[in-house]
Write a structure and sequence with these properties.
- Strands 3-2-1-4-5-6-7 form a seven-stranded parallel β-sheet, sandwiched between helices.
- The model has no long low-confidence stretch (mean pLDDT about 95).
- By secondary structure, the protein is an alpha/beta fold.
- The longest helix is centred in the middle third of the chain and has 22 residues.
- The chain contains seven helices and seven strands.
- About 40% of the residues lie in helices and about 20% in strands.
- It has a single domain, classed as Rossmann fold (3-Layer(aba) Sandwich).
- Bound molecules: NADP nicotinamide-adenine-dinucleotide phosphate.
- The site of NADP nicotinamide-adenine-dinucleotide phosphate has 31 residues, from helix 1, strand 5 and helix 6.
Length: about 240
């Protein structure tokens, strides 16, 4: 399988990259801005890469770097076709509504929604016959779910991602590309610890990564255009 994982320098994306590499014949491209952490990921994974599997990392800023001049040539050269795209990179701000700024709005929506739009669009010629796009969303973006103070823009951005997922699934079904979103509950990552110091989530990122990998490999045979809550708690 040829797999692209965004947001691989830490948290869920980091664990997801490792777990895919432990499976046979998986070629993973891991993207994020922090090249030092990507190098650490490559070093840490090197001893556990399964037969015929391979990792390539690229320091790439989904908001500011050039998709056509940098990313697409890299992917075309290393990967050729794409079977699985996991749009995992995300940005969370925990701030009361009155304190939120225009810059917060732009960074949250650009990371959580616009980068998914841009990356998916640029990758369209590279997707293979039965490709699966998995968007990593949040319970906060699910209509009717419990909402939390401080997360208005983050949750709204994930709500937008959910609707984008539904619409993309409809538009891409003729190309045999499936698109689903996993609306995660709390996972104990640096993002969560920075936003909610002291809170203990019920799940560790490696466990969530196991589920996401399984879903990315198999879920498109059962789901398309679906927003699936993945949570053992509220949120
Ligand atoms: N943890 C939770 O409780 C939870 C709950 C629900 C949903 N989620 C979602 O799950 C996903 C992963 O969350 P996490 O907790 O693992 O977050 P995390 O630890 O903050 O990791 C986020 C990743 O996104 C990358 N990233 C952010 N902005 C980027 C940009 N402009 N260009 C490229 N990469 C960028 C970061 O790498 P660099 O800084 O190196 O670029 C990092 O690797 C996110 O979409 C998040 O919203 C998490």
């Amino acid at each position: 399988m040829n797999i692209i994982i965004t947001g691989a320098s830490r948290g869920i994306g980091y664990e997801l990259t490792k777990i895919f590499l432990a499976g046979e014949a998986n070629h993973v491209i891991a993207l994020s801005r922090n090249t030092v952490k990507l190098k650490r990921l490559a070093e840490e994974s090197s001893g556990m890469i399964a037969r015929n599997s391979r990792l390539d990392v690229l320091g790439f800023d989904l908001l500011n770097d050039d998709y056509r001049k940098v990313l697409i040539p890299f992917l075309t050269d290393r990967l050729g076709t794409v079977d699985i795209l996991i749009n995992n990179a995300g940005y969370l701000v925990n701030k009361d509504f009155e304190q939120l700024t225009d810059d917060d709005f732009d960074r949250i929506f650009n990371t959580n929604v616009k980068s998914v739009f841009k990356l998916t669009k640029e990758l369209l010629p590279l997707f293979s016959g039965a490709a699966h796009i998995v968007n990593i969303s949040s319970m906060g973006g699910v209509q009717g779910s419990a909402k939390f103070k401080g997360l208005s823009l983050y949750s709204a951005s994930k709500g937008a991602l959910n609707v984008l997922t539904e619409c993309l699934a409809e538009e891409l079904k003729e190309k045999n590309i499936s698109v689903n979103a996993l609306a995660l509950g709390a996972v104990q990552t640096e993002m969560l610890a920075e936003a909610f110091p002291g809170y203990q989530a019920p799940l560790k990122p490696d466990k969530m990564a196991e589920f996401i990998m399984d879903f990315a490999l198999n879920g498109h045979r059962f789901f398309n255009g679906k927003i699936l809550p993945v949570s053992v708690s509220t949120p």
